[in-house]
Amino acid sequence: MPEHWMWDPDNGNGAVNKNTCHVFDTLCYFLGEPVSVHAFGASYHGAAPALPDGIVANIAFESGAVASVTGGSLSADILRTPTWLDVYAEKGQALVTGIEHMFDTLTWGRSDDSSEPNRQHWPNPRLRTLIVQYAIAEFVDSFRTGRQPESDADAGLKALALAMAVNESTATGEIVDLRN
Length: 180
Prior knowledge:
By secondary structure, this protein is α+β, with helices and mostly antiparallel strands. The protein has one domain (5-177): Dihydrodipicolinate Reductase, domain 2 (2-Layer Sandwich), CATH 3.30.360.10. Helices cover 31% and strands 31% of the residues. It has helices at residues 14-31, 129-145, 153-172; strands at 34-42, 54-61, 66-72, 82-89, 92-99, 102-110, 118-121, 176-177. Strands 7-6-5-4-3-2-1-8 form an 8-stranded antiparallel beta sheet, with helices on one face. Strand 4 and strand 5 form a beta hairpin. The chain is globular, with a radius of gyration of 17 Å. The model has no long low-confidence stretch (mean pLDDT 83).
């Protein structure tokens, strides 16, 4: 729906900002500072032609790690918006997959492994409200005890910067340098 707040560039800033920012947040948590993004995508639904609703992004990090991310929200309920994240690093590779922007499987291997890859699977909460309950409990506990919360405003700003860089790279076809 084009009139939905998500498609307003000054409010929701599109599906990549609304949904894929969770993947970006996870990447930054594990890999550190992102330095550049090269993304491809389009407005397949046409709800907001200037904002992509499906993307593929390659992200380089200061640590030397790189990630390839698919994201957006094409509203194909039968697929439940799959999440797919490949991470390549000096000593190995990891694949993180899930649905509805929530990870549920981690498969990884080190470059010196010769057997089967390691795999972890955990069920997504049946009710997404459990995630919100955890987030509120974390916030309240950190406020009461005076400790730094696990996530902070900088984490949110990094995820937002990545989402905006993906939108820019998709529009221009160019690599966006995040260090400026």
